[in-house]
Structure formats: structure tokens, C-alpha cells
Amino acid sequence: MTINAWLNLYKPKGYSSSYCLNLLKKKFKLKKIGHVGTLDPMAEGVLPVAINEATKTVSFLNRSKKTYFFEVLWGEQTDTLDSEGKIINSNEIVPLKDKILEKINKIFIGEIIQDPPIYSAKKINGKRSYELAREGIQPKLKKINKKIYKFKVLNHNIDLKKTSFMVICESGTYIRSLANDLALSLNAYCHCIKIVRLRDGIFGKKNSYPLKSLINKEKIENFEKYLLDIKSVLYHIPTIEINDKKFKLIKNGMKVSMLEEVGSKEHKEILADYHQNVVALGSMKDGVFYPKRILNIND
């Protein structure tokens, strides 16, 4: 039986997201694997992993809120905006906590505009931005609009020149850029020395599984007990149940009328459920289901 599910992986510091996925794929002999929200090698934390047909549902999950813990060291700005880069600017300014909070509340709550870090996984003409940066090319990245829901100072130590924060933000927010922009708004410099993703939608740190334990200790036959079914992960999307006849039509990419079952309802996103399995994701208009992604689960 082919596994089609999600895994709540805890990515360790020091490894790229793709490297961690390749380890899982090899260890558990998986055909396809994907993830939501790339974590930088220096970052750690929750990394939702999609397995086999669940990879087709990644785009439906990629808009969930993210929660991060991060810590900065004041006085130094690096080219990567984290501790792995070279120092490019420095000063002796360590802002007071009150000043930090004032700037956060004034500028960094709600809609913000970010410059993505040049050392990021963003693609430019098919090549990663960080690859171009390593070659000495200064990639031009478009500014992005993001939303910050909550931004708190957890600890502020002037003597150690360190401050830790907790932020809840929109998917795709760059934490390194957020820290850098905050510092610059205070006429200071800083870089991230720790970034931890605590939550990504329903995936939280408390119920995540460390990569090391899965790779070194777990047997292949026990892998399924760590997985979440597709339907539970996409709990926020409404579901319609389909019969044998409609399943065959949807499987062939055809639209089907659901007027008798649900009336003329409209949904931008909806799941088609066949015998407790998600078999397609699509939209509903005037009582007609239009499949967008078809999952090869039931034969």
C-alpha cells in the first residue's frame, strides 16, 4: 500500500530543507516528497512534509500563518543577515527595549514591505538567489508585501547585546529581513543568531518528530504511525462526498454536477471525498465541481 500523507518534521539546525527530505525519501523508500515553507540551513523547527500524492496539496496549505522564535545579536550586520555571513557593517548601538517596542508597534504590525535576502531560495531565471550571490552577482529581487499579526520582545539583554522575539506572520515572511529592517529603523545593526519555526498552521513543535530519531532509530514498517492523513491537514477546506459514478468522472478530469447534494453553492476551494479519502481538490461554482488537482489514491 502506497503512503499518501503528511509528516510533521522537526528540522535540525545545520541542514538544508531539501537535504532533510532526501534523507527521509531514501530511508523510507518514498516515491515523491515535498514540503511547505523552506527553512534556511541555520534555522530549525517545524517543516511540514508531504508524501507521495499529498505533494499535490502543498499549494493549498502554503498560505497558513507561521510562528517563529528568533534571537538577534546587535552591533553587526552580515551579508546573509545571519551568523553564517560576513560582517559588512557595524556600530556600538544596542537599542533600549522601550525603543524597540515603540518601533514594532509603529511600523512592524500589520502590512509591511520586505526586501527578500539575496541569500535566499528565491528563483531568478531558474537559479536560486543564494547561488547567484555566492558567484558575486547581486540579484535583483522584487519587494514583497507581507502581514505581521503579532510581534513581541521576549528577552532583552543589553550586556550580551542580544534580544529574542516571537512573531506570528503571513506565509513567506523573511525573518532575517524582518530583524534587519527593525535594526535599521533604530539606526542600529543586527543579525539573526537563532531562528526557530514553532508553528506552521496545524503543525506545531510539540507534536513534531525530530529528523535524527526518524532516520537513526525508526523502522520502515513503523513510519505510518507518525503520519497525518490529507483530510485532517486540509481541515480548513470544505468537503463534498462523491459516489462511484462521479469518482470515475473526476478521476478523468471532468467536472461534475453536485446540485442534488449541495445545491448551487460556490467555493473557491473544496475537497472531493471518496470513501474517506481526498481524491481531488478543486472549486465549486453554481453547484458544479471543477477539479484542479486529482490524487491517484483509489483505483
- Percentage of residues in DSSP E strands: 35-45%
The string of secondary-structure elements, in order, is: EHEEHEEEHEEEHEEHEEEHEHEHEHEEE
Question: What name goes with the CATH superfamily of the largest domain?
Answer: Pseudouridine synthase
Calculate Rg over CA atoms: 22 Å
Low-confidence stretches: none
Number of helices: 9
Annotation, overall tally of beta strands: 20
Helix/strand class = alpha+beta
Mean pLDDT, all residues? 90
> What shape does the CA trace take?
elongated
Main pleated sheet: 11 strands, mixed
3D structure, described in words:
With 299 residues, the protein is of the alpha+beta class. It folds into three domains: 87 residues, Pseudouridine synthase (2-Layer Sandwich); 132 residues, Pseudouridine synthase (2-Layer Sandwich), CATH 3.30.2350.10; 56 residues, Roll (Archaeosine Trna-guanine Transglycosylase, Chain: A, domain 4), CATH 2.30.130. Helix content is 22%, strand content 37%. The protein is built from nine helices and 20 strands. The strands form four sheets. Strands 1, 2, 3, 4, 7, 10, 11, 12, 13, 14 and 15 form an eleven-stranded mixed beta sheet that branches. Strands 16-18-19-20-17 form a five-stranded mixed beta sheet. A two-stranded antiparallel ribbon has the order 5-6. The longest helix is centred in the first third of the chain and has 11 residues. It is elongated.
